[in-house]
Amino acid sequence: GEVMVGHDEL
Amino acid sequence: MNVFRLAGDMTHLLSIMVLLLKIHSMKSCAGISLKTQELYVLVFATRYLDIFTTYFSFYNTVMKIVFLVTSFSIVWYMRHHKVVRQTYDRDQDTFRHHLLVIPCFLLALLINHRFTVREVLWTFSLYLEAVAILPQLVLLQRSRNIDNLTGNYVFFLGAYRGLYLFNWIYRYMAEKSQLRWIPWISGLVQTALYADFFYYYIKSWKKREKLQLPA
């Protein structure tokens, strides 16, 4: 899927 | 990953470890709100759906699994473990937590970054996390006797989002990241809800007294 902004955070 | 983000994640992890330590070593969940723990299960389950679809890093995947597994197991212990569940303050933990879920979901439908299932659920998880501590704070206020592990658990849990605020400031300034009002404002609200608790926690720590919140 497409990586959304900030989704690398927990 | 910057130092604030890492410190935030480690504080979050530490809070969960403290709670598990209390449950495992004392076989007690006295002073812990099951309502808040159930809300966290919902927060993590809706936020970490992307665990199957998007790979960020080994760190990211492991942390997501840890948060999911630990939140589910805490609720399981409080509901089903034959010793632990008897220590649950059922009569004091009366916050109607379902009433937080619906407004957060409606808000996520209205105010989101993009109207997709994943993004709406992600946004919902941020809104719900911001207020998920409320049943726990109400229970603490009703508790005449807050043990150290419970006090430390809530302190680390509050400190984690506070450290994330610094992470967002850093990312915005150093990495020229976009404006991200939804997590920023949610995180600010979440941290602000702890203000009162932080005040009494630090005061009792300085005076070496037992933590007690005014009713």
TrEMBL record, chain B:
GO cellular component labels: endoplasmic reticulum membrane
Keyword line: Endoplasmic reticulum, ER-Golgi transport, Membrane, Protein transport, Receptor, Transmembrane, Transmembrane helix, Transport
Membrane topology: Multi-pass membrane protein
GO molecular function, a single term: ER retention sequence binding
Key word Membrane present: yes
Main location: endoplasmic reticulum
GO biological process: protein retention in ER lumen; protein transport; vesicle-mediated transport
InterPro entries with a match to the protein in the record: ER_ret_rcpt
Location of the protein in the cell: Endoplasmic reticulum membrane
Membrane-crossing segments per the record: 55-77, 98-115, 121-140, 152-170, 182-202
Top-level lineage group: Eukaryota
Entry similarity comment: Belongs to the ERD2 family.
Descriptive protein name: ER lumen protein-retaining receptor
